[in-house]
Structure to design on (252 residues):
């Protein structure tokens, strides 16, 4: 079955806004599933505000439920994605999942789990096994939960299935991953000089964005623009450059 639409969370939300435009009842269904106010959903749809935290996860999985292919969900490890889906459908709370997969009790454990579900923090192989075990125990409840969850019908005229479809397959530009060098491996001096300059440029920006002068929503926007897990991946790569010992310890 082909996806209703394929893209990032932001692109999918924009498509959903158009596909439910002018239909209060459909918006109420989204409000009920996600657990926010109608005003909040309208602001999401107008691009005045971005979803964050638990509502962001529930919105992503409701869009998946409607047939959207949400890029940030596809980037998660399958056991993590399955566990997050159980949370989104309210089969288990963050606190319950955190305890069952071995995170610390209290706010710290749930914050860590939320970061894992958003794709901004990785997990060890041992932890993945814990997620797998959790899903095996509770996963059977999901089918029944989906049956009882209202699925809205999207408006006609929004059948475009990808944010890139308008370009045409033959016209789509080659996408270069921002963390991969765009020069040939032999040009070592270019790589070193470009990377050094980029790090120097990033430091004041990162310092400012991580300060109390910026809100949690704005920092979430940075992670969203970086592809969901881009900040985490960059941090891991930069850690390997702290020294040869760090590189060997943190090599994948």
């Amino acid at each position: 079955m082909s996806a209703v639409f394929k893209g990032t969370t932001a692109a999918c939300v924009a498509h959903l806004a158009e596909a439910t435009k002018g239909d209060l009842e459909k918006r109420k269904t989204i409000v009920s599933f996600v657990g926010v106010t109608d005003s909040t959903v309208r602001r999401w749809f107008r691009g005045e505000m971005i979803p964050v935290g638990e509502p962001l996860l529930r919105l992503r999985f409701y869009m998946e439920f409607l047939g959207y292919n949400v890029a940030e969900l596809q980037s998660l490890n399958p056991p993590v994605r399955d566990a997050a889906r159980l949370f989104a459908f309210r089969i288990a709370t963050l606190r319950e999942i955190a305890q069952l997969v071995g995170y610390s009790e209290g706010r710290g454990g749930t914050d860590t789990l939320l970061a894992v579900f958003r794709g901004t923090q990785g997990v060890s192989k041992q932890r993945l096994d814990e997620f797998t075990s959790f899903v095996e125990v509770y996963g059977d409840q999901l089918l029944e939960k989906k049956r009882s969850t209202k699925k809205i019908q999207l408006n006609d005229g929004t059948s475009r299935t990808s944010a890139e479809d308008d370009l045409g397959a033959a016209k789509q530009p080659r996408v270069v991953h921002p963390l991969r060098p765009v020069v040939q491996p032999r040009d070592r001096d270019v790589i070193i000089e470009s990377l050094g300059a980029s790090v120097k440029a990033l430091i004041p920006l990162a310092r400012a964005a991580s300060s109390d002068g910026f809100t949690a929503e704005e920092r979430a926007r940075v992670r969203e623009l970086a592809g969901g897990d881009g900040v985490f991946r960059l941090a891991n790569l930069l850690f390997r450059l702290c020294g040869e010992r760090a590189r060997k310890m943190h090599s994948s």
